[in-house]
Amino acid sequence: MYIQNFDTLYVISDLHMGGETGFQIFNQGDRLRKFIGSLADESGRIGLVVNGDIVDFLAESPARYLDADGAIEKLKRIWGDPAFKPVLDALQAFVQVPNRRLAFVLGNHDVELALPAVRDWLFDQLADGSTEARGRLISAMTGEGFSCSVGTKRVLCLHGNEVDG
After folding, report:
1. How far apart are CA 85 and CA 158, in angstroms?
2. How far apart (Å, rounded) are the C-alpha atoms in residues 152 and 129?
3. Rounded average pLDDT over 69-74
4. Mean predicted lDDT score pLDDT of the chain
5. Which of 118, 105, 115 minimizes the C-alpha distance to 148?
6. Among 39, 76, 113, 159, which is 20 to 30 Å from 12 by CA?
7. Cβ(15)–Cβ(51) below 8 Å
8. Neighbouring C-beta atoms of residue 107, cutoff 10 Å
């Protein structure tokens, strides 16, 4: 099994991007956009892990657990929402940079991303037509988390709901 190796790894979690205005948990789009943008200036091999719940499908109407039929339409609405667009644009720009990798770990509010068509739609948007950028996207959607190396250290990123009672 191939293990990604990074010089620096950043982990963010539980963005919960989703929901109409007034029902949105995430409200730091500009701040996160600036942070993600700053990673382009760093040297070395940089990894960014979104450690579950990047989007919150349950905050989208109609709220259904594992909404296979409506998930892509919900993603389209989230992608176009001005509250979330700066972050998604920053992630899109991040994967355009060589020596950058963006990994997604499955969370309990974005389980639809485990569905290949849903994950592919998101990855296609993030890659913006670039096969190189698409190759910099990593899917960790099996519930086993994302394992990598940072220098000589091994790291395992889990969302956490896997160990909830």
Report:
1. 26
2. 34
3. 93
4. 91
5. 105
6. 76
7. no
8. 24
Strand ranges across the sheet with 46-51: 8-12, 46-51, 100-105, 137-140
**DSSP codes of every residue in 36-87:** HHHGGGS-S-EEEEEES-SB-GGGSSS--TT-TTTHHHHHHHHHH-TTTHHH
pLDDT single digits (tens) 92-143: 999 999 999 999 999 888 889 999 999 999 999 999 999 999 999 999 998 8
Report the distance separating Cα 140 and Cα 160, nearest Å.
14
Query: 155 to each of 13, 52, 142, 143, 146, how far by Cα in Å?
Result: 15, 16, 17, 16, 8
Rounded mean pLDDT, 20-39? 90
% of the chain at pLDDT higher than 70 = 96
Tokens of residue 28, six digits:
């730091």
